[in-house]
Write a structure and sequence with these properties.
Blueprint: H1 11-21, H2 28-40, H3 42-87, H4 96-119, H5 124-132, H6 142-154, H7 176-188
Length: about 190
């Protein structure tokens, strides 16, 4: 016989226990016992902590990305302002009205383009980074890349006896293209 426990709980919790106990083969005592087991369980704590850690890791990655983008944006703006102030000569008084009109027209065009980019989900920083992102083909010829892949495949220490060719050469499970794809995935992690 199990020991008896009398407790007082909030009305909301009591209603939830009653709803859960309406299922077949479930009693109020079983619901309360399962809740207490979860409360005192180390596994429950580990699951909760694991979920919090994953969430914090994701938030940290998002923050780092935002910080990087803000840094790029700030540096770009500072460089533009410096360039603009050093290159643009002051205008004589007679030309200032025409310059203001032209400036207003250009600014309206700028706002229109900005609205289109934002509505289309485009991101200038991402576009620029993709544009300047160097590919390995920009540093090596196709023949040099093939030679590098062959050396990498031959030097791979994870080969088992079942993966060797009869003449002692290491057999490759991958083509040259998939090895390059793996390299690119490793760089982005």
């Amino acid at each position: 016989m199990k020991p008896r426990l009398n407790v007082h709980v909030a009305h909301e919790l009591f209603e939830k226990v009653e709803i859960a106990a309406k299922r077949p083969d479930v009693t109020k005592a079983a619901v309360v016992e399962a809740a207490l087991m979860g409360f005192f369980s180390k596994e429950f704590d580990d699951q909760r902590d694991g979920a919090l850690i994953r969430r914090l890791d994701r938030l940290t990655r998002q923050y780092d990305k935002l910080e990087r983008n803000l840094s790029i944006t700030t540096e770009t703006l500072a460089l533009y302002i410096r360039f603009f102030l050093t290159v643009t000569p002051p205008l004589p008084g007679a030309d200032q009205d025409a310059a203001r009109a032209l400036g207003k027209e250009r600014f309206d065009y700028f706002i229109t383009q900005l609205s289109r980019r934002l509505a289309g989900g485009k991101n200038m920083v991402r576009d620029v980074l993709e544009e300047i992102n160097a590919d390995e083909s920009e540093f090596f010829t196709a023949r040099e890349l093939d030679a590098l892949r062959a050396v990498k495949t031959a030097a791979s220490p994870q080969q088992s006896e079942g993966q060797k060719k009869p003449n002692g050469e290491a057999a490759s499970k991958h083509t040259g293209a998939s090895v390059a794809g793996e390299d690119q995935e490793d760089d982005h992690v």
